[in-house]
Amino acid sequence: MIHLYCGVSESEWNGTPPAPGHLACVSPVKGRSFRTKTETRVRLPPNTQVLQDSGAFQDSIDNRLSFQNALDRQIAHAAKYHYQVDARISYDLLIDESWQDGTRLKRRWSVQDAEHAIGQTIAAARFLSENRHDIPHLVLSLQGVNARQYLDCAERVVGFCDPQRDWIGLGGWCIIGKLPSQMMPVFRDTIIELIPFLAKQQIQRVHILGVLYPQALGELLWLCDQHGMILSTDSAGPQLKPCFGDWGYGDWRDNDYKRALPSVRSLDRIRHLQQTRRWLYGIRATQYYQMPRMIQPKMLSTGQRQLALNLNLRHNALDYKK
User: What are phi and psi of 208, to 5 degrees?
Assistant: First the structure.
């Protein structure tokens, strides 16, 4: 299964209290540009386990906070809106978003330009590990444009991680669903090196930030399963898609769905979230759960080779049907 933290950035869903279920992701700020960025006002059900984002996604490169101020913002937000933080994400510097005139654009950085972001991301992980504040789980994020850069970042960040309770955050992939032909090859190249490395470091859980692209999730889960690692993700999409007349992901997308009237739209938002969770819990039974195509059999153990063979046969059959 894949655990889904539902993104929440509102105090109501079309007139009713938000109903993200038992897992929610909250950022202290929201907005797509520096001019529209505001504090996130949320109201969460009691006993919700909150994954607290850092706000790095909303902070432009020219308006980033110090690590201490970013942490203070997280702490103040949780206190103001009365929620308990179960896991807190480090204040990394994202490489899959560019800024132009104060507006965020879906544009990935170059390898050379990303070196600064990698340094900031490593420093952010170290800072948060030294300032835990009794948070049960820290999510120490990674960034990188290619596999080598990503692994270099991971080699530094794991040193600040407590493998028994902290998670590694896979940052920099939130645009993969918009640019799959460009991003999937580098994603596969990265995870087939990264996941075995993290497993050797005794990391027990990874969290991919802001991704619900089925192909990426299915292949990442397959790799995590080979090493006994837990996988989770976060997204506001499952509760927002019905607001835009959109329903489903991948093989359960409903192109005939029509946006409900505002008076009952909150029910569709809740229902869509529930169905998304069920899909992620059962994703192993779908076509998306498969060995990444770039893995070669010699990289696998005997048992893994047999599983890979079975998956390849199934994948070839699917290709033939297409």
Answer: -95, 125
